[in-house]
Amino acid sequence: RSPRAEKVLNAIFDVMQATPHMAYLGPVVILFGFGQVPAMLATLGFALPPMARCTILGIRTVPSAILEAGRMSGCTPRQLLWKVELPAAQQTLLLGLNQVVMQTLAMAVIASLVGASGLGQKLLFSLQQLQIGKAVEQGIAITLIAIALDRLTQAYMRRGYRHRDANQPW
Q: Least buried of 3, 11, 69, 123, by fewest C-beta within 10 Å?
């Protein structure tokens, strides 16, 4: 909520988003060695800025009328955040989640260089063995996973609200 803190975070996020994929692996490998954990930490660091930026944007763009209604209802600051602001910013938050999914899948093959297993590791192995056919299949699989997850998050983002009747069982 602090404009000063937002300026500092935006500067940090600018640097993080301008950093190439491979550059995340170096410090993480030095600190944690090779394996699943360093790959996960590098992927987390790479995918964090878009989600944080979308969260800041979502909370900043909540209409003042909604905030005023929450205050008039007697919400504490914590209740205002969790029960008013975050639900009102849901579409922007889901857009951030979509970006995190895409960034994570983009990092899958690169993270396999430090020991992450999975489809990215299989693709890397196929490329190292010059098995182009297998590499294309695995690349298409990663792309299809990305497309499917993108469509799911977009559909969830666009869905309408349906209020449940209190008298009906679920």
A: 3
Determine how many CB atoms are found less than 10 A away from the CB of residue 56. Answer: 19
Looking at residue 1, the DSSP 8-state letter turns out to be -
What tens digit of pLDDT does each residue of 60-78 get?
899 999 899 999 989 899 9
Convert the pLDDT of each residue in 99-108 to its tens digit.
Answer: 888 888 888 8
Question: To which H or E segment does residue 146 belong?
Answer: helix 132-158
pTM: 0.73
Tell me if residue 63 falls in helix, strand or coil. Answer: coil
The tokens 């889901």 sit on which residue? 94
SS3 annotation, 9-57 = HHHHHHHHHHCCHHHHHHHHHHHHCCCHHHHHHHHHHHHHHHHHHHHHH
pLDDT at 68: 92
Q: What does 102-144 look like in DSSP terms, one character per residue?
A: HHHHHHHHHHGGGT--SHHHHHHHHHHTT-HHHHHHHHHHHHH
Tokens (6 digits) for 3: 């404009």
